[in-house]
Write a structure and sequence with these properties.
This is Site-specific recombinase XerD. The protein is mostly helical. The chain is built from 15 helices and 8 strands.
Length: 377
């Protein structure tokens, strides 16, 4: 039911009842404005986009708390990143704002302001993603008709220069790392993340098949080691080169199945900060590879695998990427180096097939004197 009535004070009062039978009304000085508002509400009801205005009055700060509490599927490190982004970038601007008062242009202006303040593109994009996820839940909960953060222009992420070590550089780095030599070789030849290597147990090594089962990862969350599933929540098998499998067999010979493959000097978890301070960073300086991080060994593993002939799907599985598209985005340029090899292989395959189709040569019988011209006189 909808209607417009003129009040004794001269204002126009449009009103309507929602699906629950509750009456809503507003007051306007002009009848045209009252009719326009009523028409917009009626259209929203008919198209299913209607939202009770009272449900939009909750603030972003209140709704963000409910959103974060509902994210039970997050890894601890992701949960911490969301908390930091909320506290530092989202809530200072949007905390007291009601959901219904957020506009697309307002979000765009906020993104632009963050960019102008010197924040990196990754930081700005992550802050926008957090706000968009919060508003997305509001849409699904019937508090907003649409997500005003969708479609906002975002700064382009500039990917840092990737470092790919050669076999010789990997050997030099490992040799300079002392007791953690095998850990560096494992990172450089398997491509696992540091947290996956640190959490690897002896029971998850199959050195006869030269495989490591990546089933667990560890992360430092607020100074506390938190164990969980790998980044994509999926277990995977990674190949181990024969020379490394042989060295690992000797390394774990006296360990128990539940022991860490790569442990701290006094036993227990090999924390990243200690690994870098005691072994990795000094080895980087000794090998003349300033600026190298443990994550660069993951890039190195990908480049060595591709150079050895591994296809994109194999590299994706090895690194634990969620999709082959992600692998191509990161390492697709390395495949260009194999274009000549592919062309040469196609040439060889074509020549081999053509050779197999060619009929075998036969020796023709030489003509005799009789058959050539009769008896010889």
């Amino acid at each position: 039911m909808v209607s417009i009535a003129r009040r004794p004070n001269g204002q126009w009062r449009p009103r309507y009842r929602d699906a629950a039978g509750k009456e809503h009304a507003r007051h306007f000085d002009k009848k045209a404005d009252a009719q326009a508002w009523l028409d917009s509400v009626t259209t929203s009801v008919l198209t299913g986009a209607y939202v009770d205005p009272k449900r939009t009055r909750v603030t972003v700060a209140e709704w963000a708390g409910q959103w974060l509490d509902s994210k039970v599927d997050l890894k601890p490190t992701t949960h911490r990143c969301y908390e930091v982004s909320l506290r530092v970038h989202v809530l200072p601007t949007w905390g007291p704002v009601r959901l219904g008062d957020i506009t697309h242009q307002g979000v765009a202006a906020w993104v632009a302001q963050l960019s102008r303040s010197g924040k990196s593109a990754s930081t700005v994009r992550h802050a926008h993603r957090v706000l968009s996820l919060i508003l997305g839940l509001a849409v699904r909960d019937g508090r907003l008709a649409r997500n005003p953060a969708v479609g906002v222009p975002l700064p382009r992420r500039v990917r840092g220069e990737q470092i790919f070590l050669t076999y010789a550089q990997v050997d030099d780095l490992a040799a300079a790392a002392g007791r953690d030599r095998l850990a560096i070789l494992f990172l450089a030849y398997t491509g696992v993340r540091y947290g996956e290597m640190a959490a690897l147990r002896v029971r998850n090594l199959n050195l006869l098949r030269r495989r490591a089962l990546i089933a667990e990862a560890v992360a430092d969350v607020n100074g506390r080691a938190v164990f969980g599933t790998p980044k994509t929540h999926q277990r995977r098998q990674v190949p181990i080169p024969r020379f490394l499998a042989e060295e690992l067999a000797v390394h774990v010979a006296d360990k128990l199945p539940g022991d860490f493959v790569f442990a701290a000097e006094k036993g227990g978890l090999l924390h990243l900060r200690n690994f870098r301070r005691m072994s990795f960073d000094p080895a980087v300086r000794a090998a003349g590879l300033d600026g190298l991080t443990p994550h660069a060994l993951r890039h190195t593993a990908a480049s060595l695998a591709i150079a050895s002939g591994a296809n994109v799907k194999v590299v994706q599985t090895m690194l634990g990427h969620q999709s082959a598209t992600m692998t191509l985005d990161l390492y697709g340029h390395l495949l260009n180096d194999q274009l000549d090899e592919v062309a040469d292989a196609m040439d060889a395959a074509r020549a081999a097939e053509a050779s197999s189709r060619r009929p075998a040569a036969t020796v023709a019988a030489l003509p005799t004197g009789r058959s050539a011209g009769g008896p010889v006189g």
